[in-house]
Design brief:
The structure holds 2 protein chains of 2 kinds. By secondary structure, chain A is mostly helical. Chain A has helices spanning 3-11, 17-29, 31-46, 57-79, 87-110, 123-141, 148-171, 175-192, 198-230. In chain A, helix 7 (148-171) packs antiparallel against helix 8 (175-192). Chain B is mostly helical. Classes of the chains: A mainly alpha, B mainly alpha.
């Protein structure tokens, strides 16, 4: 009776009824098999689950918040009137489609996946992200805080677009950018809620504008470093 | 139109909060064992929560909400792992240990901090995933095979090798302690 069979017997999985009976018979009739199995049981029982690592309280809070925001988002969505044509939507949609087409298209046609390092993000995609961040920045900067419906619709629109970019970032092997898009979502969901005060909305708006600015600066700096180092003869 | 948040039988926002308070550490631990990466485990739990919330109409009322979310979190962790480290789902052709320790994985192992965790660092990703799902999560072989996109035979081999290595490693660690 080999060890592998005893392991399957222990887990009560992967053996037929007949095979289980054979193992049982062997354990009952053969002292060596019985001893082997007992030792195996002791060792496997000893491989108990370690204590759960402590999860930082802010992380747990974030998970609670995620549920609250998802619930609020659902309520806002349910309460929102059917959308009529909105020129913003059209412009946004076109910009996003173009940015995605540039980002993904170039990645598919020009970048050989075997050559491309896993962490490399195509420049065209990064530029698409920059355009998206810049447009978002401008929209948020000019958004009147006194119109809850407009604010909510814009926030929901940005969320939808960010999700597209998040997926595109993942396809472009940029987990860090994907995480950035995910990180914006909780704040945007808060902004999308129509029941927050204008003061809270203004604070969230300011927070988003600040964070977008940080991202735009970072992306510009990265792009400029890339350009510098790609020029022959120039070393940084 | 908030009825869908209060439909009888559907888990409520409060149910989700209670489950997070009671069990999120276990979800996180399970995801951490799969991914060995705090960020991925964190993302997996958050994805699972949002997924569970959005699909709560599919929840079977006779089951436990926290168990359901636990399962979704494991799936989310496997998905993230597949996306980030596709080699984890390659059945074993060679007996290679997962030696790609990064500061994050070292930290993760330090946090798990037990002999089993230390021994598990010597498993390949595939072996670790198979072992965790079988031994710690009590999944059926068939379920594991489906989830990792392999066959039952390969999963069995992954588990056999994992158990063999762990028995040796844990035996020698025990010997070192005494």
């Amino acid at each position: 009776m080999n060890e592998d069979t005893l392991i399957l017997y222990y887990y009560n999985d992967g053996l037929s009824k007949r095979e289980r009976q054979q193992v049982e018979e062997a354990i009952n009739s053969d002292a060596a098999v019985a001893a082997n199995y007992e030792k195996l049981c002791q060792q496997l029982n000893g491989m108990s689950e370690p204590d759960s690592p402590a999860v930082p309280s802010h992380t747990v809070e974030r998970w609670h918040d995620a549920i609250d925001r998802a619930a609020r988002h659902e309520r806002v969505k349910a309460q929102s009137p059917a959308r009529s044509f909105n020129p913003w939507s059209f412009i946004w949609g076109a910009a996003i489609a173009a940015a995605l087409a540039i980002g993904i298209g170039l990645n598919m046609t020009r970048v050989d996946p075997e050559i491309m390092a896993p962490a490399t993000v195509p420049g065209a995609f990064t530029r698409g992200v920059q355009v998206h961040f810049r447009d978002t920045f401008q929209e948020l900067s000019t958004l009147p805080t006194d119109s809850a419906t407009d604010r909510s619709m814009l926030a929901l629109q940005i969320i939808e677009q960010n999700r597209l970019f998040e997926r595109a970032a993942e396809q472009n092997n940029s987990q860090s950018l994907a995480r950035v898009f995910r990180a914006f979502e909780p704040v945007l969901l808060q902004l999308a809620a129509e029941d927050i005060s204008p003061e809270d909305a203004a604070a969230l708006q300011a927070q988003l504008i600040f964070e977008l600015n940080v991202m735009l600066t970072k992306l510009s700096r990265d792009a400029s470093n890339e350009t510098d180092t790609s020029q022959p003869g120039i070393r940084t | 139109m908030v009825a869908n948040l209060q439909t009888p039988g559907l888990p409520t926002q409060a149910d989700f909060h209670a489950a997070i308070s009671d069990r999120s550490d276990r979800w996180f631990a399970a995801c951490l064992k799969i991914t060995r990466n705090r960020d991925m485990a964190d993302d997996a739990v958050q994805d699972a929560l949002l997924n569970a919330w959005n699909k709560r109409h599919q929840f079977d009322n006779t089951a436990r909400l926290d168990t359901w979310i636990h399962r979704i979190a494991i799936n989310a962790a496997l998905q993230l792992l597949r996306k980030n480290r596709p080699a984890a789902f390659e059945p074993l052709e060679t007996d290679v240990e997962d030696d790609a320790d990064t500061p994050e994985t070292v930290q993760a192992e330090h946090e798990l901090g037990k002999r089993l965790s230390a021994a598990m660092t010597h498993l390949s990703e595939f072996e670790r995933v198979c072992f965790v799902l079988k031994h710690l999560e009590q999944w059926r072989l068939k379920e594991i095979a489906e989830e990792v996109g392999s066959d039952v035979g390969a999963v069995k081999q992954g588990i056999f090798r994992a158990v063999r290595k762990l028995r040796v490693r844990m035996g020698s660690l025990k010997g070192e302690e005494t």
